[in-house]
C-alpha cells in the first residue's frame, strides 16, 4: 500500500518540481485558499498557539499572523517539492549566508560542530550551504514512516552533499570515528516530544514547555561547539541565514545552558517575524501533569 501511494503521487511531485517559481507560487496561492478558507486546516491550533505566545496582541493582529503563517506554510510546502528539481545556482541565490567562515574555522581545526535551528522561515533550503561549508554535513532527522517517501526526502536533502542521519546514528558516527570525521551535525531542535516521551521542560514564551535535549547531550558528550542558525525571510522565496555561536565547548557549560540559549534565540527570532513560524504544530500539547517519566526542569522554569 505504501508503494502504491508513493508511485501514485510521485509523478505529480516530479512535474511540480520542474515548474518555474512564478507558476509554483500561483499554485501555492490556490492551495492557501483551499487550506485556510475552505478546510480551515488546524486553524484552532494556530490561534491557540498565538494566544499563548502573544497574549498582548489583539485578535485582529493574531488573525493576520495566522493567515500569513498559513500562506508561508503553503509556500514552504511548494519549496520542499521544488527542492527535487532545483539547481545549485538557484538555491544558492535564494538562500544566502554571510558568515559561514565562523563555522569553517572549526573545520580547519578538525573540530565537529552542532548546528541548531527551528521551524522558522526556511529550514529545508539550508542545503544551499553545503557548498560553502567545509565540514561534511549531516542533518539529524526523524525518518518518515513510509520508506519510499523517506528515501525520496533523503535524496532531496542530500543532493548537494548533506547526509541524513537519525539521532542514534549520529551518536554512533561520532563515537566510531573518534572525531576523525570533521562533521557538522544540524538538527531542527524545537520538536515537541510525544506525551509519553516528555521528560525535559523549559520556558518558551513564558510557558513551561516540553522539549528535547538531544542536541545538547550530543554536544556535551563530545565537547563540541554549538551554533544557532538564524534564518530571516527577505521576501517570497528568498532567505538569509546567520550563524550565532552558543558555545565553543558544550562540555564546559552547565546543564541546560545550550538548550535554554537555543530557545531564547529562537523566541527572539520568532518575535521578529512571527508570521513565518510553523504555528500549525501542537507546540504546547504536553504539560507537566501529562508527563509519565521522571521530569527534569530547566533553571528557567519557575519553582
Structural class: alpha/beta
Instruction: Please bin the fraction of helical residues.
Output: 40-55%
The largest sheet has its strands arranged as 1-9-8-2-5-3-4
Radius of gyration, rounded?
A: 19 Å
Number of strands: 10
H/I helix tally? 10
Average per-residue pLDDT, rounded, comes to 91
Overall tally of domains: 1
Describe the structure.
The protein is an alpha/beta fold. It has one domain. It is built from ten helices and ten strands. The protein has helices at residues 2-16, 21-38, 43-53, 59-82, 88-94, 101-108, 147-157, 167-177, 214-221, 257-272, and strands spanning 95-97, 113-117, 136-140, 163-165, 183-188, 200-204, 207-211, 226-235, 238-247, 296-297. The longest helix is centred in the N-terminal third of the chain and has 24 residues, at 59-82. The chain is globular.
